[in-house]
Every structure is written in C-alpha cells, then in structure tokens.
Amino acid sequence: MQSLQAKQELNMQKNWCEKLDLLIAEHRDMPGALLPLLHAIQDDLGYIPESSYAQIAKALSLSVAEVHGVVTFYHHFRSHKPGRHILQICRAESCQAMGAEALEAHAKKFLNVDYHQTTADQAITLEPVYCLGNCALSPAVMMDDEVYGRVSSADLDALVLEASASSVKA
Amino acid sequence: MTTKIYIPRDSSALSMGADKVAVAIAQEAKKRGKEVEIIRNGSRGLYWLETMVEVSTDKGRVAYGPVKVKDVSALFDADFLSGLSSNAGAHALSLGYTEEIDWLKKQQRLTFARVGITDPVSLEDYIAHDGYKGLKNALALSGDDIVRTVTDSGLRGRGGAAFPTGIKWKTVLACEAEQKYIVCNADEGDSGTFSDRMIMENDPFVLIEGMTIAGIAVGATCGYIYLRSEYPHALHVLNEAIEKAEQAGYLGEKIRGSGHTFQLEVRRAAGAYVCGEETSLLESLEGKRGMVRFKPPLPAIEGLFGKPTVVNNVISLATVPIILDKGAQYYADYGMGRSRGTLPIQLAGNIKHGGLVELAFGITLRELLYEYGGGSATGKPIRAVQVGGPLGAFLPESQFDTPLDYEAFTSIWAVLGHGGVVAFDDTVDMAKMARYAFEFCAIESCGKCTPCRIGSIRGVEVMDKIIADKNKQTPNTVKNIKLLRDLSDTMLNGSLCALGGMTPYPVLSAMNHFPEDF
Fold it and tell me: Of the candidates A60, A133, A136, which has its C-beta nearest B354's C-beta?
C-alpha cells in the first residue's frame, strides 16, 4: 500500500504535468519561445526539473540536448529545487570597493553553505550575482525580488533571520 | 488641504527602505488627522540621500533626506507639511528646495529631464512634462528625415561602443524586408552602472517613445526590450507603462491615428553578462544559448530571426524623444569634440555621494569624483577608478584630469563605456582586481572563441602565481608578468567579441599604473 506521502507526491507530479502542458500551450507560439517558457516554469516551480526537458523539446521541435544546453548556459536558470528564499550577494567591482568580499565570507559562515547551496533548514539558497544596479549604495544584496543597499553583516543576519522565520515562499 | 508628498519607488530607494517610510508617513498622517496624498515618484538619483521625501509647496518641492522610519514622527512634529517657513526648515534632514540642491542644479538633464519628478506609470504626468512631443514631430516626418535628425544630433551608442546611432538606423532603413525589428539592449550588466535601470523604473514612457520613433523611422513594426532578470521592478513598471501606452493609442496599430504600427514586448534575460553583446543578445531573444555570432553580417542587415534589426542601448533610445522634440542642433550644442550631447554618468563604488549625474561631455573625472562625489565613502584617498564597467581600464590619480569624452579616453587606452565610474580607496589590491577581471571573464564567457574561453582561465592561474610570489623577489614573477602580457595580447587581438577582447583593459591598466601591487 502506498504511504500518504507517496500519494501526495504522485498527485503533485500529476498536477505539475498538467500545469506544464498549460505553460507550454501558453508560450509555444511565441517567436523565440524557449526563454519565456523556461522563465514561466521557474517562476512557478522555483526551478526547471530535468524531467520536463523532453516535453519542452517536443513542443518546440528542439532536441533534449538543446533544452539542456539553454538551461545550463544561463546563470539564472536552475535545474534543482532551491530553498524557500534566494539570497544573492553582489560580487561585482562596485560592491568589492565597499567590502563585498567580507560580506560574502560572513554570509557563507553564517548560513554554513557555499554558493549554489541551500541551508540545512531549506530556508535559503545562496547565490552570487554580478551587479544588481544598486552601485551607488554598495554593497548590495537581493533577497528574492527585493534589493538592499549599504548592507552590513548585521543587516544581512537580520534579513536571513526574517526570511528563515517565514515558512512561505515570498 | 491635501498636501502632496513624493516618495520614490526606484529600487535603490526601496533598498534603503522607501516602502517602509511611505507606510510610516501614511500612518502618522492619519494618526494626526493630516490629509496627504502620497505619490510614488522616481528617484532624483541622489542616492546617498535616499529615502528622499519631497513635500509639494507653493514655491516648489521641499526635500528631506535621508529619511528613516524613526525620523517620521519628528518630521511631523516640525510641521514639515507646511513648507520651509515652518520649523521643518531647521530640521536636520531638511535639504531645502529640491531644485536648489547644488548637486542637482548644476546638472544638464536632457535624457533624465523627468526622472524623479513624475509618477513613472502615469501617462498623464508624462505628457504634462513634455512627453510624446518627439513622437508628434516624428509622425510628421519621413523616415529619412527622422534618421537625418538623429544623425545630425551626433548621438552615439550609449551602451559603450559609441557607434553613431543615426548611421545604424540608416542601414536598417535602406534594407528591403517584410519584417524589421527594434531591439532595446536593457541587459545592463556593467558593475557601476544603473542609468538604464533608472530610465526603465522612473521614466519608462521615454524609452517606449524612443523605440516607437525608431520603429517609425526605419519601418519596423515590432520591438523587444531585452531586460536583465536582475531588474524585477523595471519589468513590472515597463509592462504597466506598455499597457497604458497601448490603451491610449501610443502603441499598437494606427499609432495616434497615423498609418504606423508598432508592437512592443519585454523579454527577460537570464543572467548572462555576455548577452549584453548585441549578437549574443539576438541569439538569446531567439530562444538559444547566448553564443556570440560572427560579424558580418551586421545585425542591421541580418539581425533578429535573420531580419534587419536596430539594436540600441536604453539610454540611446531614451534620448531620441528630446532630439526629435527640440531638434538635432539643440542636442549637438552640448558636449565636446566628436562626443556630442550629454552623458548620464553613474557615480558608484567607494564614493561619498553616489548617484546619477547627467552632464555634457567634457567634465573631468576629478571634478566628478570630488565636486559631485565628495571623495571616497570611507574618507580615505581615492587610489583607482574603473570607468566603463568590468571591461574598462583602471585609472590612477595622475589621469583624473582626463575629460569625459570618447576620444580623450581612447587616447589614454581607456573606455567611457556606459558611463559607470567606480571609485576605490587606497585599501584596494590591484593584483586582486586583475585576477577578478579574468575570473569574471571565465564565468561569463560564452565559450565560442578560444582566447576568451581558455585565456580567461589561464589568466586566473597566472595571476594566482603572481599573487603567491608577491614580495618574494623570485625570478618567476618577471616570467609570469611577461606571460600575462602575452596572454593579454592574444585575448585583445584574437577574441570574437568585447568580453574576451577587453578583459585585458582592466588587467593591463592595473599592471601598468599600479606595478607595486604585482
């Protein structure tokens, strides 16, 4: 007999397959449809599961390798499930001039993860970013879709604690 | 009486808590029974003063900043809604009349004329502040005449390459094709730059107007804004503005009753720096990996989906409306030499007063760094400045008197690029910065050409050796520095695009001007 959890997962998968069909139908006729479609999938799910490549490839008359190639070319797309929140730390020159390197080191230590990793409680995935366009207020970080400027180590800790405390995805 | 209060919605202002300040002011006003109307305007670009709150008075807007939530109650105590005659004039955060702030008053804002003044998503506001006057004139002109006006203005590509915008348009206009495209390069990836973001978030209609004029000029009916994924606020503002422009007949079919059609769509990039390169951008728009294309064919002849395409930077396109409104000569009267008009300069990095300074070409770096920037944020001497993003040269103090002019920068082996100026104080280690330049190139290389793909990685390795040998006086250092110069030479001359081809700019300038760090 299937466990309740397995049943739930199966249901989720079924729902997701239907959702993917819907997203594909919405996007397939756009010129240059692949990137908008991948964005829509990641916006919905937080990542682009490898299991979806074949369905995407078929709909857009591409090979699975081409879909894989595009997903992996762009830093923004991820093929693994991230934490509930994404914390991006700017590593670019302007932020370096204002101590970004120390902020990066602090964040990695505080979260106990390296870049592209997720905290043990699944709350936060840490990512590097190369410019957030907030260069007059360096160093800058982004938590989900919100930018923060002149970020000190203490500010970063407060941001992380606030995000970790919220169980829902922003 | 209802008092109008302006609080920016620009993402840098939000990064300093503008939303929270807006909520606090609304709550405090309600508590005290004051009638206020809060307008979420764009930022004036005086970022060290964000959140900058402005109060509308009979004699103009009065500014306060930087306002934090904890200051709100005291501002009401000082009766800041009543203008400067009240106690508020003496408040520590009072900046006086906004228009009289020296930093702003000395600027020559043409492209940024409305930024910070209007509500970004109000079409009525845009039109009330001279918006869509350029389009009105353009609709009465032939494509040839529009292109000639842009050419005569002397406008050059503000993305960094400085290619004359009018010449590019002329090539597309001359092409026979059933479909042509206008593509706006909004993949503003250079560190130290945010002028594109400011236009898109704070005056989106000016970009829409500029693209519409471009479409009418060259006969393109379809436009795309390729927007970097790191700018989610710009995405929302642009989409809202496009919808409003469509509803009012400024986009779509029969624009303002004319025979012209122009459809506009925003497409999100996906975090690849190389997609700021125009051919890689086109590949990405077509739904592929952002691999750089060989040129020729030029995108103007075979661009998006193989059709003639204008690819212009946000600032270039956003400058077109004022040129069509006030005439080519009006714009060309600003500037020096072959650099005509104004440049929206972005002061960033270790700088006390960072923000947006739009001025005619010709101001020197020193004036910018000290008269506008107020020196470093840390109070230490400014040791190096990187102009033009991660592929721009580092300039030492001895070059601070260089005027901002494309040719003057070329003559000292530097680039103006997109106008980003990043200051570093005397704690900067230039060997580390040279290493970072290679590292960044390695992370962002599309991989198509060998000098960039492999050269960047070898560059990191050689820099690691140089850094490890520093102060040890080993013969290896001399050998490695020679190796690095050879490698830079290969990348400079053998790379397919500016990513690999210009990575040697920061590397060699760091070595040449700051040899003591190597």
Answer: A136
The CATH H-level superfamily of B123-332 is: NADH-ubiquinone oxidoreductase 51kDa subunit (3.40.50.11540)
Q: What angle do CA B114, B264, B19 make, to 5 degrees?
A: 45
Strand ranges in B350-505 using DSSP code E only, listed in sequence order: 355-360, 382-387, 394-396, 420-425
CATH class of the domain at B430-517: mainly alpha
| Domain A85-165 falls under CATH 3.40.30.10 | yes
Q: If you average pLDDT over residues B423-452, what whole number do you get?
A: 98
pLDDT digits (tens, 9 = 90+) for A90-135: 999 999 999 999 999 999 999 999 999 999 999 999 999 999 999 9
In contact, B386 and B318? CB cutoff 8 Å: no
C-alpha–C-alpha distance, residues B404 and B412, integer Å: 12
What does the alpha-carbon distance between residue B35 and residue B412 come to, in Å, rounded to a whole number? 57
Tokens coding B437: 């330049």
A76 touches chain B (CB under 8 A): yes
A100 to chain B: closest CA residue: B349
Domain boundaries, given as residue ranges, for chain A: 4-73, 85-165
Q: Say if residues A168 and B453 touch (Cβ distance below 8 Å).
A: no
> pLDDT class for A14, splitting at 50, 70, 90?
confident
Q: Which CATH fold topology does B335-425 show?
A: Ubiquitin-like (UB roll) (3.10.20)
Beta strand B309-313 pairing with B181-186: parallel
Minimal Cβ distance to B191: which of A135, A145, A150: A135
The verdict on B191 touching A (C-beta cutoff 8 Å) is: yes
Where does the pLDDT of residue A168 fall: very low under 50, low under 70, confident under 90, or very high at 90 and above? low
Q: Which residue type occupies A40?
A: A
CB contact under 8 A, B348 and A34: no
Q: Which residue type does B363 have? A: I
The domain segmentation of chain B, as residue ranges, is: 3-101, 123-332, 335-425, 430-517
Q: Taking Cα atoms as reference points, which of B186, B43, B162 lies closest to residue B109?
A: B43
Please count the residue pairs, one from chain A and one from chain B, whose beta carbons lie less than 8 angstroms apart.
155
Q: Do A94 and B191 touch (CB under 8 A)?
A: yes
**Cβ-defined contact of A136 to B355 (cutoff 8 Å):** yes
Give which of B11, B222, B263 to mutate to test A binding, by max A Cβ within 10 Å. Answer: B11
CB atoms A133 and B11 under 8 Å:
yes
CATH number of B3-101: 3.40.30.10
Residues 420-479 of B with CB under 8 A from A: 420, 422-425, 428, 433, 436, 440, 443-444, 446
| Closest of B388, B383, B432 to residue B414, by C-alpha | B388
